[in-house]
Amino acid sequence: MARTWWKEAVIYQIYPRSFKDSNGDGIGDLRGIIEKLNYLKNLGVDVLWLSPIYRSPNDDNGYDISDYRAIMEEFGTLSDFDELLAGIHARGMKLVMDLVVNHSSDEHPWFQESRSSKDNPYRDYYFWRPEPPNNWISFFGGSAWQHDEQSGEYYLHLFSRKQPDLNWENQKVREEVYSLMRFWLDKGIDGFRMDVIPFISKRLDWPDMDPDDFSSAIEQIYANGPRLHEYLQEMNRKVLSQYDVMTVGEAPGVPPRLANLYVGEDREELNMIFHFGHMMLDWGPGGKFDPKDWSFNEFKEVFNTWHKAVGQKGWISIFLDNHDFPRLVSRWGNAGEYRQESAKLLATLLLTMRGTPSIYQGTEIGMTNVAFEHIEDYRDLETLNEYREAKERGDDLDALLKTIHQVGRDNARTPIQWDDSSNAGFTTASEPWIRVNPNYREINVKSALADPNSVFYYYRHLLRLRKENPALVYGDYECIDEGSDWLFAYHRWNKDGEFYIYLNFSSKEQNGLPLPTGIRIRLFVSNYHQDASFKDTLRPWEARVYQVVR
Ligand code: ISL
Ligand code: CA
Fold first, then answer.
1. How many C-beta atoms surround the C-beta of residue 86 within 10 A?
2. Could you tell me which of 37, 202, 266, 518 has the fewest CB atoms within 10 Å of its CB?
3. pLDDT, position 532
């Protein structure tokens, strides 16, 4: 496979609203990020991906953009942005911006014009119909068609009603997008993470969905529309190919068999996608608030299947949490007794799997889910809409609150815990925009930096090892645990090196580690102090990586 910088890089995702507040208004901002650049450099990540920082009324925390060429007032100014970009580049890191162009805000001038009358020149920038042509349900609840008083028609919104879907059929819309992309690329940014990019081409025969199976509709109805690849190729030809930048498409609804249509090296579309195989494994037909059981072997199978699907032709990005999902240690590890061990085990998976890893802010110190007792403490519109609808239906609200504690997006959106002072050192304001997780006195950056055994230093160590060992980036991958219900074990190898990785996904000591025979191996990294008596036993949440001595 061709070597490229974005395959070797490690991404760090910043959710600016919750990262660091520099001016005491309770909201994270660009100058807060500037303050912490040395911290991120010290961690050893290469690419900073910022969740949206554009002007926005914040119905969906910036994923609803009203001006693609301006910075959100709360976050700062364009000159703060220039300083941030220069500071990132001066440290040898790169900056990736979020590109949210499946929809805009309803407060964007395009939509203001579009809704003003049926013959406005911007009418066709969005999808208007006299009656809803189908039964589509929006991601954030209710019909995906919203009646608009002004012109008496309905417009399409796959997300909130303040996020109308842009009409990519219209060449003018596409040119507007390419032009705003050039605006940022010409400033010197290093790429884009593309929000719900598989949704931009709509099925214009407007097929009905199965109203009881939202999860299947994502793939069959919303994603992978008829003109999608034509659009991505056009975007690549007209914009991306003119710059040395990376792209990663957020790809809910893209099944493995379609992966290389997006990321195959011969396709000239995207460099990588974030797939949702493991992230939606626990979604029942009703979506995330309708959780279903899943098995550990299904979880492993996702990685195996995706590896086979992209093979030597394409590339993916690996992530285990982000701003839309629970904290990885609460979801797949043990956030209690074995918080540090399991956080390190998950770091091992993230950084030794094949693909470009993406670390979500706070994960490097093992931050956990939060369980607010009162719905009033939640901020995410998805959570609040679900709660309101459940109340209208007369559902059990205590049960829903428990589900929110498990799956809600605000789990990942509480402020970064910088130290043990009030509000975790995130802000000097008495009230941050969302409450800090009460466990900040124990879990925070300051204490992680003071403890050589912390999750932070484990990340830093592994990030270095990954840089020094191209086999961990480009090497082939094979799962070797044969369906164990506690062990995830795999082999990574190429001409440069060879590794065996063993991960005990349980809170029990486990025997019978299938170590390779007939070759010499040495312990390369582990999340426990090593003791020879544990040779083929793994302690709770123990992770061990062996290197083959050649
Ligand atoms: O968490 C989810 C909803 O339950 C995901 O399905 C999520 O909505 C989906 O992955 C798309 O996410 C992206 O686009 C949304 C935005 O709210 C998310 O924050 C963003 O990551 C709309 O722009
Ligand atoms: Ca601020």
1. 12
2. 518
3. 76
| pTM of structure | 0.98
pLDDT at 32 (0 to 100): 98
Q: Would you say residue 193 has pLDDT above 80? A: yes
268 catalytic? Reply is no
CATH number at residue 90: 3.20.20.80
For residue 237, the CA-to-ligand 1 centroid distance in Å is: 27
Which residues form the domain of 126? 109-156
Residues 208 and 135: beta-carbon distance below 8 Å: yes
Q: Please give the average per-residue pLDDT across 348-352, as a whole number.
A: 98
What is the reported pLDDT for 446? 98
Cβ neighbours of residue 228 closer than 8 Å, sequence gap 6 or more: 198, 200, 201
**Which CATH number does the domain housing residue 118 bear?**
3.90.400.10
Q: Which ligand is nearest to the CA of 158?
A: 1
Q: Which band of pLDDT confidence, cut at 50, 70 and 90, is reported for residue 1? A: confident
Distance of CA 141 to the CA centre of its chain: 21
Kindly state whether residues 206 and 81 are assigned to the same domain. Answer: yes
Task: Kindly write down the DSSP assignment for every residue of 388-435, as one continuous string.
Answer: HHHHHHT--HHHHHHHHHHH-GGGGTSPP--SSSGGGGS-SSSS-SSP
User: 529 lies in a domain?
Assistant: yes
Residue among 324, 382, 385 to mutate when testing ligand 1 (max atoms within 8 A of CB): 324
Q: What are phi and psi of 49, to 5 degrees?
A: -100, 125
Residue 398 belongs to a domain: no
Residues 203, 300 within the same domain: yes
* 33 CA to centre of ligand 2 in angstroms: 11
pLDDT tens digits, one per residue of 398-430: 999 999 999 999 999 999 999 999 999 999 999
Q: What's the rounded Cα separation, in Å, for the pair 299 and 312?
A: 22
